[in-house]
Specification:
heterodimer, A: about 65% helix, B: about 350 residues, mainly alpha, Protein YIPF (chain A), protein transport (chain A), golgi apparatus (chain A)
């Protein structure tokens, strides 16, 4: 009450008949401890679910995976507005795991080459497009389009890729990966007529991944 | 800033306003364009201002060291609190100044947008330039046009890196001091940038009409011939074929570059010097790339035949066009299964 009268002279003027009962020179107890139980309860219930807090949206991941796997499907330019690195991380891990099944412990190479490749593509796309592109978007697209390469490395677990069949299969998978990646980049950055120019550096990057799988 | 730094740099108040003035002159957040009408008359070129800044920062550093030394004496005498805080403030100011300076320099000089116009190409243009790089033009009376772009040359250098990697992997080359990828990238980029710079320097000496960008583009497109030759000869191991391609394809791309340079240089001695150097370096690089990364293949092909073949035979081999049917299963299964098969057979 003292706080109201001291800090709000307007209410004091409106209600002048309120008797003065407070004590000026003694500090009033401003902190009223509420019971902690309902406070904790509210906050816990109000917390968002863990996956939402981490930014992992399984439906979007599935949509993007389908866009990659279906090379002739037209890509929606807005799917890459959110940067999602959970999917690409899982795909890199899966690629390393399939290489492990073939006896090649090369996780370091996979992560190193993907980091350097993403950096290179980021610089190139920023130079070639009218609007810029963020590093997360580039990493996300390139990571998702690594999915067909996982098929190639799982094929290499049983069959050798060093024959003519292997060469044709490798070339096909590299083409598939780079076609999907360039399709998504073109639709997201509105670079019509330059799909081949974007697809070629992607093909070189996925060619290096294929080299790891084959040899 | 001047007030807190007064104990350390009280004699440098004169540079305070100039420093502020320079800061005001940067418009547009670190663009490379300086608006001259707002430029302070007393400030000279931006390099002089930067030099003054360096000088000031160095003197502040020296004074900060002196303050730190004094602080140690102060600690010993029990006056730690005040002097410690002061030196910390000075160090903090210095760090802020250095960081601001570095970020401004970075945004001004490492601006990747400077290269943007050189990547503005269409696929049809790149295709036509690739084909033209193999066709030497005889017209040397007036300067031939060179496309000043960097997309094609950069992609060709990366393609050469990929082909080199493929060649090293098929020949099981082992690099002891480094990695395969590092060697390939170092070789290709080192050649492109190093030889371009060297020929540009020679062109400067010989008074040729060519810029650094044009030289980079010319040499980059000249690597198209190298890519073709290496792609074919890393997979078909015939020395005669390689020499034929070396002369034909390598020679065509070298002739094209030589013709362009001759059209832009005056004087027979200068032309001879410049074009002779470029031709020698270009042809020798192709020779080097072929022989440095594939000669092990011959030895391995021999040992895969069976146990009774001598280890290394330096003879050219013909790859059999059709694999005999009996060996087909062994080549389809991968090396692990083959090793298992060999161990089972030996037991």
């Amino acid at each position: 009450m003292i706080m109201e009268e001291v800090e709000d002279p307007i209410t004091k003027m409106i209600q002048p008949q309120q008797p003065y009962t407070g004590q000026i020179f003694q500090p009033t107890q401003t902190f009223t401890p509420t019971t902690p139980q309902p406070f904790y309860g509210n906050s816990f219930e109000d917390e968002p679910p863990l996956l939402e807090e981490l930014g992992i949206n399984f439906d979007h991941i599935w949509q993007k995976t389908l866009t990659v796997l279906h090379p002739l499907k037209v890509a929606d330019g807005s799917i890459m507005n959110e940067t999602d690195l959970a999917g690409p991380m899982v795909f890199c891990l899966a690629f390393g795991a399939t290489l492990l099944l073939a006896g090649k412990i090369q996780f370091g190479y996979v992560y190193g080459i993907s980091a350097i490749g993403c950096l290179g593509m980021f610089c190139l796309l920023n130079l070639m497009s009218m609007t810029g592109v963020s590093f997360g978007c580039v990493a996300s697209v390139l990571g998702y389009c690594l999915l067909p390469m996982i098929l190639l490395s799982s094929f290499a677990v049983i069959f050798s890729l060093q024959g003519m069949v292997g060469i044709i299969l490798t070339a096909g998978i590299i083409g598939w990966c780079s076609f999907s990646a360039s399709k998504i980049f073109i639709s997201a950055l509105a670079m019509e007529g330059q799909q081949l120019l974007v697809a070629y550096p992607c093909a070189l990057l996925y060619g290096v991944f294929a080299l790891i799988s084959v040899f | 800033m001047a007030t807190t730094a007064t104990p350390a740099g009280g004699s440098r108040n004169g540079t305070g306003p100039e420093w502020g003035g320079f800061e005001e002159n940067i418009q547009g957040g670190g663009s490379a364009v300086i608006d001259m009408e707002n430029m302070d008359d007393t400030s000279g070129s931006s390099f002089e201002d930067m030099g003054e800044l360096h000088q000031r920062l160095r003197e502040e550093e020296v004074d900060a060291d002196a303050a730190a030394a004094e602080e140690e004496d102060g600690e010993f005498l029990g006056m730690k609190g005040f002097k410690g805080q002061l030196s910390r403030q000075v160090a903090d100011q210095m760090w802020q100044a250095g960081k601001r300076q570095a970020s401004r320099a970075f945004s001004l000089y490492a601006n990747i947008d400077i290269l943007r116009p050189y990547f503005d190409v269409e696929p049809a243009q790149v295709r036509s330039r690739l084909l033209e790089s193999m066709i030497p033009i005889k017209m040397v009376n007036f300067p031939q046009k060179i496309a000043g772009e960097l997309y094609g040359p950069l992609m060709l250098v990366f393609t050469l890196v990929a082909i080199l990697l493929h060649g090293m992997k098929t020949s099981d080359t082992i690099i002891r001091e480094g990695t395969l990828m590092g060697t390939a990238i170092g070789t290709c980029f080192g050649y492109w940038l190093g030889v371009s710079s060297f020929i540009y320097f020679l062109a400067y000496l010989c008074n040729a009409q060519i810029t650094m960008l044009q030289m980079l583009a010319l040499l980059g497109y000249g690597l198209f011939g190298h890519c073709i030759v290496l792609l074919i000869t890393y997979n078909i191991h015939l020395h005669a074929l390689f020499y034929l391609f070396w002369l034909l394809v390598g020679g065509l791309s070298t002739l094209r570059m030589v013709a362009v340079l001759v059209s832009r240089t005056v004087g027979p001695t200068q032309r001879l010097l410049l074009c002779g150097t470029l031709a020698a370096l270009h042809m020798l690089f192709l020779l080097y790339l072929h022989f440095a990364y594939h000669k092990v293949v011959e030895g391995i092909l021999d040992t895969l035949e069976g146990p009774n073949i001598p280890p290394m035979q330096r003879v050219p081999r013909d790859i059999p066009a059709v694999l005999p049917a009996a060996r087909l299963p062994a080549t389809v299964l991968n090396t692990t299964v083959k090793a298992v098969e060999v161990t089972l057979r030996s037991h």
